[in-house]
Amino acid sequence: MLKIPPHQVAGHQAGNGKLGPLVDESGRFYKPLQGDERGSNELKFYTSFSSDSRIPEHISKFFPTFYGTQLIEASDGSGLKPHLVLEDLSIGRVNPSIVDIKMGSRTWAPEASEEYIQKCLKKDRETSSLPLGFRLSGIQIYGNKESGYWKPERTSMQNLPAEEVKLILKKFVSSNTLTGMDLQPDCAFAATVYGGSTGILSQLLEMKAWFEDQTMYHFYSCSILIMFEKGLALEGQNPGGQIKLIDFAHVIEGRGAIDHNFLGGLCSLIKFISEILTAPNEHKSLVSSVNGVN
Amino acid sequence: MLKIPPHQVAGHQAGNGKLGPLVDESGRFYKPLQGDERGSNELKFYTSFSSDSRIPEHISKFFPTFYGTQLIEASDGSGLKPHLVLEDLSIGRVNPSIVDIKMGSRTWAPEASEEYIQKCLKKDRETSSLPLGFRLSGIQIYGNKESGYWKPERTSMQNLPAEEVKLILKKFVSSNTLTGMDLQPDCAFAATVYGGSTGILSQLLEMKAWFEDQTMYHFYSCSILIMFEKGLALEGQNPGGQIKLIDFAHVIEGRGAIDHNFLGGLCSLIKFISEILTAPNEHKSLVSSVNGVN
């Protein structure tokens, strides 16, 4: 039985007669193949990448597993349509907190059409992409059973200055997200989610080392997903912090150069996460007695 | 006595009634203060940077020393004009080989005028900047007393694909640059110029570590100069490989984010230099018996 993914925070979304991805119960994610060259390009990337023996396993684990394509009933009722069959990244997660970060200060490839370049350039200039090298594309932060998720309007996240992006990335790992929305985040889970030898920062650094070296692909307009389970963190267990790369409709060949555009944004993101780990309580003195969710 | 700098490879050049920088015999470099906001911005940068206590000495050494401004006779005969007084970077050098590399895939700051942005964007798209994250802006490679310098047309250097940029960076540290121009470069000085604990790669990595951390300045349209003395290399002495940052007319405040645009280009350049060091003789089998200059 196919259904609408419960934890999608960005991208085209199914429902209300719209075309969007679907998931099944066996852990597969069906993404409609876009009819234009974006679809064929994303399929080409998955096909090439999934059989590319040059990709080490500690890097391929950051990408969704690819299971080919399949004709299934599209979510908009338009009949059988080709879909990419991918790993459902939220499988096994109960109440995941997720942020989708679109990488790079430039979201267009050099050989894109003039019209597409102008459209992307305008958006890159109007959002955080240009100043920060990435933009927050969507987020959901789990509060608790009663309050559910904090899931702000996607457009409200995209053009924030550095200090507010940092605040969001602090709230992402805080226990006082919902009831204490106007208070300074407590960063209660910064050390267990972002820190540690298997935490988010370590994973980002592992990805960075690969991007400093690989000249095979340039990942324009691709996103990093950061996910973890706040429920587990609250119980003192490993919160399962994980990063994944998604959205490859605009990947091109590297042609002998590293992907400096993605890498620059990645280093920028790493700097934000590092600062939060180094000084999680920069503003905490104001609200040290408040703890909203626990 | 002021004269035209003998070793300038890029930027506005004095001579034939044109306005350009001058040098004196005491090691000072006089750069005409551009009349528009580029001039005031570069002066603002030098003034702020040279007194900024947050800049560690192992980083400030990569920047020209700033001695203030001075009214001197302009090189175009237009009378007394304000000039930035800077360290002459080629002082003490006899026959320097120099390459000027304009950094970043984007040479325009977010707040530049629309007209300026469009002009830069066009050039970034037409040159190596977009694919490589930097472009070669000018070069001179010393051959020997008889042949002098190889100094190709600046425009011919700016839009090369990755493989040809690598070839130029190999020729830069080769002994067969001039007489063996069509042959594969021998990379005879790669290890002593690019390699070693004080070589170019080490310096670039030192700069990279700072750029991964600093959120004070974003260096749009700034260049890295790489210099060394082939004469010393030929004598088996330390060739004095050195990098310097120049051209700060488009520096802006960092506002809490790292300079991902410069850093991306820097990582790209580092990858090229590393590859040359790792495999200097990738194509050498073809020309192993040829050595043009020695």
Automatic annotation (TrEMBL), chains A, B:
It catalyses: 1D-myo-inositol 1,3,4,6-tetrakisphosphate + ATP = 1D-myo-inositol 1,3,4,5,6-pentakisphosphate + ADP + H(+); 1D-myo-inositol 1,4,5-trisphosphate + 2 ATP = 1D-myo-inositol 1,3,4,5,6-pentakisphosphate + 2 ADP + 2 H(+). One of its GO terms (biological process) is inositol phosphate biosynthetic process. Its EC number is 2.7.1.140, 2.7.1.151. Belongs to the inositol phosphokinase (IPK) family. GO terms for molecular function: ATP binding; inositol tetrakisphosphate kinase activity; inositol-1,4,5-trisphosphate 3-kinase activity. This is Inositol polyphosphate multikinase. Inositol phosphate kinase with a broad substrate specificity. The keyword Nucleotide-binding applies. InterPro entries: IPK, IPK_sf. Keywords: ATP-binding, Kinase, Nucleotide-binding, Transferase. It comes from Solanum pinnatisectum (tansyleaf nightshade). Gene3D superfamilies: Inositol polyphosphate kinase. Residues 1-21 are annotated as: Disordered. GO terms for cellular component: cytoplasm; nucleus.
